Amino acid sequence: MKLSYIVSLGFMGATLMGCSESFLDVESKTESNTDNFYKTENDANRALIGCYDGWRQISSSPGFSFYVASEVMGAECFGATGNTDGRGYQAVDRFDIGQSSGDLNLYESDWARYYEGIYRCNELIKYEQQINWTDETLHNTYMGECHGLRALLYFDLVRWFGNVPLLTKATQENIPQADPADVYRLIFDDLQFAIDNIPEDAYPKSKAEENDGRFTKFAAEALYARAYLYYTGYYGAQLEGITAEKALGYCEDVIKNGGYALVEEYKDLWPAASAGIADTKDAVTLLGTYAGDGNSETVLAQKFTNTQDYNGNNDSNRWQVMVGMRSLASAPYGKGWGALTVNPNFVNSYEAGDLRKKASVIDLANDGVTAAAGFESSYKDWREYTGYCIKKYSPLCFKDGTTASKIDGSGDFQTQNHQDWVIIRYADVLLMAAELGSPNKQSYLDQVRKRAGLNPVPATQENILKERKYEFAFEAINYWDLLRQGVEYAASQIATSGIAVKSGGNDDVVVISADNIIAKRGLSQIPQNQITLSNGVLKQNAGW
Prior knowledge:
- Strand 7 (496-503) and strand 8 form a beta hairpin.
- The protein is mostly helical.
- The chain is built from 22 helices and 8 strands.
- Strands 1-6 form a two-stranded antiparallel ribbon. Strands 2-3 form a two-stranded parallel ribbon.
- It is globular, with a radius of gyration of 22 Å.
């Protein structure tokens, strides 16, 4: 596996409507190299920011994106996009490469970006002892964050592809895929390192404005529980020393000591769900009741800025444009490329009175979008139109349809969207603790349902998993929740014998075969170019 790894050390931070000071704002130092670097704690800080940026690049650089793919593969969305576009999104949606004329490299960019991020983490770990550490607490904190980020990158990769090379050193060595159990051992070891070394008060929630986006002890604990639930569910096995009791204990620690709380109104977690109709430069009206980046519920978020361009500056949320309505702006919802239309069966399955439905889904007819200027041309250019789109991650626009990626209206709607991708919310920790058997599981489930406007139900495993389905809709979580309940079960929930949609304004149907998902065990295609570059050392996943 011969990838061209690039380590860059100059990055920028972001807020929703523009740039601001943050821990990601550092001076570019592109002249640094391993001969004159990794000497001081400041060097270590800059290298760590490089690791964070390596993580950000999985969403900032062109590619499919793990978070988009997680939704396309699941039961909530269809691939969609433009009616005359290539059918790559359909290949992912149907687990059928024949949908895309034999495209064998759908995820090539994503594969490379993940290993570049891992390389950055491995390099900092490699040179750790070369650094002149004067503050041992700082030393432990930085290295804990580095290990935590590596664990997160590998956790995405191993869920996505199942069989991946395990690189623990900064190398371009050509090695075969590892046993997934070995990858998970590294993930749990890295998370344990982060838990043991990042002080509880290193990045307190009370000072989120200073460190929003940091990988904290509590983020490591929550991710540990998520990885435990996935590994034991998908593989039906346990790793020595990795127990439900430990995972539950970490969730309870987050709940008791993390300083987190549910945001009072569910809709206020998402900019588009809480936005108002605003003129250019009116950020107050546009953002409406949004609880803000780094709010009380955010345990871990991936950060972006709106300064991306076509000259190599990659720091925005590049996948977000895919969620926008097809070439159609209807304030406050901005335009995009029309991917991930929402499955009407999913919309219709919400419990009566569930406040999360309106906060999560744009109903184009009831929200007035079908009456907007330009709707007809959009509709006739849209593949797999269902009348429903994702609201949580919709781009924003001003009253006149201008993209709101910059407050003055000068932003680029394709490259400069920059909403946080929230990776872990406090609600997730509550529901994981309930699922893991907390004595407080009924209370935890009740808290989540009460905010959704729903009455209590018994805290059974079935009810807890059902609650996750609606609480985390469109957050790149539900597909993996299905898989960890068994591949056959996941396939039964995703497959359809034919759901009516419109493509180019004409009747169409979406058919997804359970057999396709089962044959591939829910895993994705390894890029053929990477297999070729490895001289056949890498092997394709079954079914692809």
